[in-house]
Each structure stands twice: as structure tokens, then as C-alpha cells.
Amino acid sequence: MAKIVLITGATRGIGYALAEKYVADGALVLVGTRDLDRGLEAVDALRENGGQARLLQIDLLDHGSVMQAAQWVGQQFGHLDLLINNAGVFDDHDVSASHEDAESLRQTFDVNVLGTYLVTQQMLPWLQAAEEGMVISMSDQLATFSDFAAERPTTGLGQRLSRMSVNAMTVLFQNEITDVQFRAVTPGYIASSPARQGGQPVGVAVDLIQQIADHTAADWDGKLIGTDGIVPF
Ligand SMILES: NC(=O)c1ccc[n+]([C@@H]2O[C@H](COP(=O)([O-])OP(=O)(O)OC[C@H]3O[C@@H](n4cnc5c(N)ncnc54)[C@H](OP(=O)(O)O)[C@@H]3O)[C@@H](O)[C@H]2O)c1
User: Fold this and answer.
1) Residues 81, 190, 39, 116: is their CA dihedral positive or negative?
2) Does ligand 1 lie within 6 Å of residue 121's CB atom?
3) Domains of the chain: total
4) Most buried among 1, 65, 112, 133, by the most CB within 10 A?
5) Which whole-number Å values give the CA distances from 42 to 22, 46, 132, in the listed order?
């Protein structure tokens, strides 16, 4: 049976590139999207060469949609092999720490922290029902104390704090749940859209995430992983 892979935010950027790669490798990809039209477009494109893709509406700000999605996964498949918590927002890359907008900060936490938490929590029974269930959650090099200590601009407080929460969540889930593997990933700066000039190609993030998924040895469990392996945070 094909590996079942759920990718949140899979209609563009790294999420879509991951969906393309997993479909090409023969997996059944559940294309997580908050927007049905964009989701259908992505699913059609992914199926063009005979690949397997299904639409799954998940808006991380709409908890009902997460509950429904989890119910659907259980009814349709009864298990989930891989959850990639890719959906997220990073709206404060040019805002210094003392100038954050409270509403924007709250939105970042709602998506990156609460949304990621809820998807993981609700998909957990199906991940546990898989032979080797795994969760890979997007984080960031910026979410490490060594990066805070470095002489850098003090921008991106929302991204940093929210991704530190993702790192912490990864550890705490792993400490509690022994039959699912939890990892966080820092892909580096990725040129996932034309606006992100000077970044690494999207393929770098895709290869890293696949490497993490294929590395089933326990030494990466509960860890933040980058292209050079475990990143202390
Ligand atoms: N690119 C980088 O250098 C980099 C580095 C470190 C971490 N990351 C993280 O890696 C992930 C993917 O990066 P990317 O560059 O591909 O990001 P992106 O191009 O900004 O795409 C983000 C994805 O998340 C989805 N999303 C946003 N809010 C959502 C919500 N409330 N519910 C469901 N989906 C939502 C978006 O959906 P819509 O299409 O509907 O907007 C989009 O599909 C993000 O979480 C990003 O923060 C990226």
C-alpha cells in the first residue's frame, strides 16, 4: 500500500515541492490547504502524471477544519504514515523586537504554534496506527539561542518565539509518545517564491525533509535537524 503523507500548506512553496516529490515517489499525498480552489488546482497538477493526491481542507486558524480533517483521515485510511507540519507564517522578518504589532504576533502564534499543535494532536491516533508514524514540523535556525546570541538584527521575534515553541513541542510530544517519531526541521533560507531572493533552491528543503523522514533511527527523535544534522536549540 502507498505511504500516506499529509502536508499542510501544500499548494505553494516548499509544501508543494514536497507534494510533487512524494507523489513522484509513489506516495498518496493529502494536500492540506486552507483554500479549496488553490487546493484543487494543486491536486489536479499533482495527478497529471498518474500520481495519487487528495484534497484535505485544513485551515490552521479554523479548529473545526482540523477536527474534520482528522476524522476524514481516520474514516478513509485508518492510519497516517507521515505528517509534515509545513503551513506557517513569517510576517515579521523586517520588524525589530520592540516594534512588533500585537495582532500580527497573535496571528503568528495562532498559526505556527496552536495550529501546528492541534493538527499534530488530532492526527496522533492515525499516526500511532501506522507501522512507523512520523511528524516533521517546520522550524527555523532563527529559533535557537545561539542565533539569538549572534550579532544579528533583532528582527523576526514572532517567527523566533513561535518556532522555539515548535521545537519544544517536538521534544515534549516525543517524551510522551513512544510509538511515533517527532522531529523539527530548519531548512535554511529557501527561495520558495520569487520574493525570496538569494535563498537556496526549494530542492534543498525537499531533500532534507526526505532525509529526515527516511532516517528512522531514534537519534533524531525530538531533535531539530538541519542540513548538517542535529542543531542544538
Ligand atoms: N522559505 C524559508 O526560507 C523558510 C525557512 C524556515 C522555515 N520556513 C517555514 O517553512 C514553511 C514553508 O515555507 P515556504 O517558504 O514554502 O512558505 P510560504 O511560501 O509562505 O507558504 C506557506 C504555506 O502555508 C500556508 N498557510 C499559511 N497560513 C495558513 C493557515 N492558517 N492554514 C493553512 N495553511 C496556511 C500557505 O497557504 P496559502 O497558499 O493559502 O497562503 C502556504 O501554502 C513555512 O511554515 C515557513 O515559515 C521557511
Assistant:
1) positive
2) no
3) 1
4) 112
5) 14, 6, 27
pLDDT digits (tens, 9 = 90+) for 79-116: 999 999 999 999 999 999 999 999 999 999 999 999 99
Residue 83 three-state SS: strand
**Using CA positions, which residue lies closest to atom 21 of ligand 1?**
13
Three-state DSSP at 194 gives: coil
Most informative mutation of 8, 11, 12, 111 for ligand 1 (most atoms within 8 A of CB): 12
Range of the domain at 11: 4-230
**CATH number, residue 175:** 3.40.50.720
**pLDDT tens, position by position, 21-70:** 999 999 999 999 999 999 999 999 999 989 999 999 999 999 999 999 99
Cell of 44: 489536479
Contact 233, 224 (CB under 8 A): yes
Ligand 1, atom 28: closest residue by C-alpha: 88
Query: What CA–CA distance (Å, rounded) separates 63 from 115?
Result: 8
Q: Rounded to 5 degrees, what are φ and ψ at 193?
A: -150, 160
The span from the CA of 103 to the CA of 149, in Å, is 27
